[in-house]
Amino acid sequence: MRNVILACEILEDEINKARKEAGNQDPIVWIDSSLHMFPQKLHDKLQEEIDRIDSELEADNIVLSFGYCGNAIVGLKSVKSNLILPQANDCIDLFLYQNEDKTSIRSSGCYFLTRGWLKSKYSIVNEYDRYLEKYGQKKTERIMDAMLAHYQCFTLIDTGAYSLEDCVPIASEAARKCNMQLCTKKGSISLLTKLFSGKWDANFCIVPPDSPITLDHFSALNLTPSQGQIL
Q1: Which residues lie across from 5 on neighbouring strands?
Q2: Cα Rg for the chain, rounded, in angstroms?
Q3: What is the CB neighbour count within 10 angstroms for residue 34?
């Protein structure tokens, strides 16, 4: 059975560790994480890659390491392959999969961070620095206050895929600049490991060839917007 993985590059730490744990050596196509800011562009890029895989690689399954992701996944279709994806609202759901307090954490005003997101050119650290250079200190503080008005703290998720100690200084500096508290929450890559091991149970959608992904595939989820940075 031939599988091809489509993966968000911001999850590189977690995906590489999960694939190693699963013994997975399937070919992987990395998708630019900045496309998450434009759901239609993300949708179009994913469909473009699915079409290319259909024409060039003849895969049995195309494995998507994406959740619902703000409607970007809905409508995707392969004419030759099964589409496999986790039952998750977004990347935060992926990482908090085994956390019993997931619902309360997501509704408690957390702005979520991981090492991958802290390294991104669109991280809150880089956003702050861009605004500072363009607008100066006082206006930057007003902009950040408005952006973060509904958040109570920065929450660094310990996914186990990197050293948390290496991330804390960067996250702490971001919290200081934005006048926010910093906390950590335990995460997990177990759902990604299951995805890459082929153990596709009720936590996964299996969409057959020539059938589009629809909202019905996510009927078990609460797809109302949740507080928290969508990675």
Answers
A1: 28, 63
A2: 18
A3: 14
